[in-house]
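Subgroup meeting minutes
Present: P.N., E.W., G.H.
Scribe: E.W.

1. P.N. recapped why we're keeping a running log of single-chain structure predictions: easier to compare across weeks, and new members can see raw inputs and outputs side by side.
2. G.H. added today's entry (608 aa).
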Amino acid sequence: MNKLFYFQGFAILLTIALSSCSSYSTISIPAGEEFVLGERENSSFRAELKNLSSATINVSAIDRTTGEQTQGFGLAGKGQTRLGVSRKETVILSNPTTKVIEVRAKLSKSVEGMRYQQMPETNLSSDNQIKAELVSGRLLQKDSLLADIDLLERALTEIHPGIYRYNSPVSINREFDRLRAQVYEGMTEAAFMKILAQSIKKIRCGHTYLNPWNMNVDLRGRLFGGPIYFPLGFSILNGQFIVTHNASEASGIRPGAAITSINGISAKTILDSLSTIAKVDGNNNSPVPHYLSVINIDARHWNAFDLYFPLFFPMEGAAFTITYQNFGAEATQTVTLKALKKEERESIMKKRYGGSMPESGSWSLDLSNPDLAVLRLGTFAIWKWEDFNHKEWFQEAFDTVRQRGIPNLAIDIRGNGGGLSEPRDELISYLIEDKLDCSGASKSLIRTTKVDAVFIPHAKSWNDIIFEGLPPHSYTRYDDTFFELKEEAGCQDIIPKDNRFEGRAFILGGPGNVSATFTLLQKARHYGFATFVGQESGGNQQGINGGEYLFFHLPHSQMEVDIPLKYFAPPVERPDAGVAPAVEVALTQEDIARGRDPYMEYILEVIK
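Output recorded in log:
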């Protein structure tokens, strides 16, 4: 019996077997083959799939009209999933490994159209299996994962100050029940991280997330230590992935090129999928494209795209096949790029671009224009900087600007995701004419004055007083939900400096500004000490959470979740939005292709 006849006969048997809704059938998918399901089906159906093998199999759904992939994910070894399929979709189960993979399937109805086919451009080698293991991590048991979920749910609902700001208790309970329902026997670390991140996103708090900086080092190495990093830097503009930097060997990919697909997956599908884990505050979704862009290649930095793309779209090997279109070109091109390790990508980028690459923690003062000083502040997360005193730095910078008589100042905080409030307030003190007191400041509210002892073995904090209990004199009961921290524990007056800047100040910002830079923009708009130029900020005017944190480690999966302790509540009702700029300026694909900075161009035009 030849191979083709066997597969066709087996597919016919499967069609009969899968017609029954009450039983499971096993599909054997040979190495390098795909099983096509529902190719001629004209109504929607549901499929329950369980991977009986130890290797990852790729599951995708294709729109039969457009040919585009509408769903796609890796089903890890021993994992299971439920899939809803519309009447226009065909499901494809792809086996990129060197061994047979068996999948147990149960359909909600009889489905027309099943067959096997060869995977396109299949390159079978043991590398595929090794790669799957690299991005999958260890196998975790169901009972352990459920225990982690229970512990996290209790911690969030008892401690998190914003847990019910955009959700009801019922919806939060339902979300955790949904999370528990997704856990199956033998779930991998990567698969669990993906669904856990999606559930945490539902809280809609930009300071509550799976933090790679605080993750268990061994776990981080298993998931993100290999060659999985995209060799191109890009910004997401209007739903397009626009190349900014190139660390690949394909020199034909130029800045301004639009990436239309990666590994056969459309840019839209990638953006829609990864948006389910992107950090936001409330219903302000403006930061999502910035958060998913690869714009900081410093090895000390983590880009969400690098972490989550392999979890949503498991890679068949250490490579990315992309389709792209250079700016101004009519034709699209397809090329396969070598995936890099994190430090390898940084090294190549630094050799090619030198100081032009943005680096976390870069502060600089550009005095090349006698009419405009440019103060660039890459981050306010400066607590790990050795031998750095931000007060002395600002004093020297503003003394220099004053001595030279420079009449205009541009403060560039684009991409600055915040950090400490102290450098923010120190900066403001050089820009204001009158004292900013705390009379109209946000209230600092907390859910608990002492963390329950059950959480202490799993939590760390910058300040252990939350484990010991806050002293009674530091807070008062605010309402049935919150305690309010007294003034001396919260806001501090900002006093103008004697050598303050007296000229015209601009702040360049946008969706990457959250936390302390969100509040900087908020104060600038309210008090008018600088003109905000750019795009709507991240954060939320209804208040953000932060200040102090529990770094919460789940004992079985070793995942870590940052849980903020304070809610900075506005004194009056405010919109569910970020801070709007006084002057709207946007970066375009052409700007990137031409190497232009429209923000600076606007300011230079205004100060003529």
